[in-house]
Design a protein that fits this description.
With 482 residues, this protein is an alpha/beta fold. The chain has a six-stranded antiparallel sheet with strand order 20-21-22-29-24-27, with no helix packed on it. Helix 3 packs across helix 6, helix 3 packs across helix 7 and helix 6 packs across helix 7. The longest helix has 15 residues.
Amino acid sequence: MIPVILSGGSGSRLWPLSRKLFPKQFLALTGEQTLFQQTVERLAFEGMQPPLLVCNKEHRFIVKEQLAARKLSVQGLMLEPFGRNTAPAVAIAAMKLIEEGRDELLLILPADHVIEDQKAFQRSLALATNAAENGEMVLFGIPATRPETGYGYIKCDLDDRSNLPEGINRVIQFVEKPDEERAQSYVESGDYYWNSGMFLFRASVFLDELKKHDPDIYDTCAAALERSVKNGEEVLIDPATFACCPDNSIDYAVMEKTALACVVPMSAGWSDVGSWSSIWDVLEKDANGNVIKGDVIAEDSRNCLIQGNGKLVTVLGLDDIVVVETKDAMMVAHKDKVQDVKKLVAKLDQQNRSETQNHCAVYRPWGWYDSVDMGGRFQVKRICVNPGAALSLQMHHHRAEHWIVVSGTAQVTCNEKTFLLTENQSTYIPVTSVHRLANPGKIPLEIIEVQSGSYLGEDDIERLDDVYGRAESDSTRTQAVR
């Protein structure tokens, strides 16, 4: 069995903590490990191969860093140039395996779910395996215990056995996010499950059903894979071909149309943590029902989620309110309205606000940097370079830079000179100088960078050499890539 972990997402529903370039699966929302790390570690048991990951190419360095931090291994990365929903993602992964002569069972898992009961998860998986080995397409259904309007629902025929193993039921209807009245009727009927978005089927079975029910996705994905660039464990999906692929989910493309869909119940403390109210549901609460993280003081407040990320946050006289503070944004919402946070994100996107794209702290393949201060002709950044890592060899046409070493050792290239700097030493990088910053040491290198000049945009980078295989020029991009 091969797990295929889908690590996409736009980061809109858990804004401002989640961003497009750092979505929720890479956040430690429910424990010390990130949701992505929890998902990979959940699969470390007998009979399970290392996972195949499908993620956006912009996230590949975050993925590798989080895997390395926990010493986790994978068998490959499928890098999407942009998202096209779950059906194309799984199709290309399945086609890659078939191309290699492998037709194992595929366990499809989103990277951003919480499963609290590992043994219950494995019991449901064992039951699902019996059906999938007989050619069925299994969806894991969560017993609907409350009228949740943010989930999709699956209706099962409890009387139709159809030669299915005991405990598995045939799917007869999919319902997408009903209103509260209908959701209540579904819960009372006992015939409905929440759609977990987790599946188990054989690779060839999925591709046969996809070709039958959505040939456009099948044909486009086959062409995209054929034209993709393969580099070791990475497959960079061809963007020109993939852009022509329909945007569709596994549910709409296949599961709602196939006669092979069945449901295995899973009562394992599952949550898709898809909203701030879901986060409140799964986290430990104080005596007043409040979930509090960070430097927070709450007075006369009940059933709130209050999260600070640097600043002191104080609340007084609030009930059922969510407050989330980050360095560059704050969101305050009623718990009943948090499903609409994505509407706020859409408005910010219409205004081209950078706060939906990235945090002040930006993670790159060599480390990270944090914007400290900014003015008309200056910008101050804190930069951390991982041991043995280096930024690209680059130059700027409009700005000069001052570098001050806070800790560690810096190897600096400036035009024809290469030299070392240690703590409290500094250097000046003039405009148009060809330069590089590297960390030759065994501990992280931290510096303060002061930029000054007539233009400080991150598209003023001419990249001359880059060990990470990024484009030589990023003039068309607005986010910082260095």
